[in-house]
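Hi Prof. W.,

I finally got the Lauroyl acyltransferase prediction working! I wasn't sure whether to trim anything, so I left the full sequence exactly as given:
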Amino acid sequence: MPRLFFPRTKKDLIALGYIAGWKFLGFVPEKLAYRLGDAVAARVCSGGGPAQLRANLARVLSCSAEAVPQSLVEASMRSYMRYWVEAFRLPTIASPRLAEALENSGHGLERIGEARAAGDGVVLVLPHSGNWDMAGVWLVSRHGEFTTVAERLKPEVLYDAFVDFRQSLGFEILPLTGGESALPTLRERLKDGGIVCLLGDRDLNSSGVEVAFFGETTTMPVGPALLAQQTGARLHPVGLSFYREGWGLKVHRQVPTEGRELDEITQDVARAFEKDIAAHPADWHMLQPFWTADRRK
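And this is what came out:
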């Protein structure tokens, strides 16, 4: 865990809350931890829930924001809090047994092994759904270390906590911003037959390509398609979701990249995301403006 620091701003206090969550939820009984997460979700939704979350779900359901069922908004917040509860507890619960449970609930996982057996690199691109850290635990247990990037959060102590946490699980973490470009290292890992995992729905630096997503225009990052095309690695969208007492982990068929435009490739990734999110809308943790029309407001 990071060194002690004295909070001076609201962001510092939020960071301190996250770090305290790691310490606290990692040691309380499992059922109590989940109940606390549900209580926070209920509190957040007591006034109807986050407006942007409701607006995003409306796109998925093809309805107005007012027509989104309150039960779905509440289920979505419970799913989001479940992610954080599990993330905070993961250092204490990660085990071969956990990886086996993830394997038993997975679909298409053999596609990663097939690529590795052929000596090919693999780019796994996933949305902010379910528990991507849990999926990483499975990946490390079956295929060893993989490489990913992380947004450099502020304050720095919070970013350091996230990096330390994920590195303790066997993830190689490269900063997305605030240093040298991660692309050369990612290309090197893929050319060596390694695995790179990238979140591919949010266009954090506004340099992505336009795609159609649930009938509206947005932009998605081009990095996964570009890396796969430049290195010859296999590109596989991944779907993540929650079950009542387990997790959904789906590796889609390879998206062809050779000789294709980057926007075409990214659109194929978006279509895979659509299928998974439509099947499990509550597990897509998108509380920020996502579609172009919303980001312009």
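Residues 70-93 form the longest helix (24 residues). Does that look reasonable to you?

Thanks,
D.
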